[in-house]
Design a protein that fits this description.
It contains seven helices and three strands, in the order ααααβββααα. It is mainly alpha-helical. It has two domains: 62 residues, Helix Hairpins, CATH 1.10.287; 104 residues, minor pseudopilin epsh fold, CATH 3.55.40. Strands 2-1-3 form a three-stranded antiparallel beta sheet.
Length: 198
């Protein structure tokens, strides 16, 4: 089994509006922990597989790998789409037209996405593109590895675990954090993800 983890420093966001450098630094350190854990699990699983030891240790490590691997992937998608000077996609963008078709427009889509982000509990809110049905959906994901719709492509990923906002906003500051998140979304990146998957 080959590790997926890279800890790509080029995706680390800088100088965001309303999200401090300290907040990003602590969140990035947590992401690096997922990278380290996924790599270690991949190496252990490869060794067990090589000697065909598929017992209980293999089973538990295999289950844990999905959590760590998705921790890497979701954080990379999250960080990669954050850049100072966000806003909303342009009127001529293909994604804007899809948001209008499936949600009634950007504003209506954002209200639903934000409402999902403010729900009680910790997890992720993800705007998914379903290429099979050619539809968009906002999806709540609790654990990293559970609840992802098969075959769908994550376009915009918002982390709503407390570690994403507690440094800046405290335990009850999720709504303020969501507002800051939207001020920093790089819609060019989100649009490119959709174009590559269409």
């Amino acid at each position: 089994m080959t590790s997926i983890a890279k800890a790509r420093s080029e995706i680390r966001p800088w100088s965001l509006e309303g999200i401090s450098e300290d907040q990003i630094a602590q969140h990035w350190a947590l992401y690096e922990g997922y990278v380290k854990n996924e790599k270690a699990l991949s190496e252990k699983l490869a060794l067990l597989s090589k000697v065909e030891n598929f017992g209980s240790e293999f089973a538990e490590l295999k289950r844990r790998w999905s959590f760590e691997a998705n921790g890497v992937i979701l954080h990379e998608l999250y960080f990669e789409a954050l850049k100072k000077g966000g806003g909303q996609p342009g009127e001529a963008a293909g994604l804007t037209k899809l948001l209008k078709k499936h949600f009634g427009g950007f504003a209506a889509w954002r209200k639903e996405f934000e409402a999902a982000g403010k729900m009680r509990g910790v997890g992720w809110v993800i705007l998914y593109w379903n290429p099979r049905e050619e539809t968009l959906a906002n999806v709540w994901i609790s654990s990293h590895e559970d609840g992802h719709p098969a075959g769908c492509v994550p376009l915009l990923v918002m982390d709503v675990w407390e570690h994403a906002y507690m440094v800046d906003w405290g335990a009850s500051g999720r709504a303020d954090y969501i507002g800051a998140f939207f001020r920093n979304v790089d819609w060019g990146t989100v649009e490119e993800r959709w174009r590559k998957s269409s």
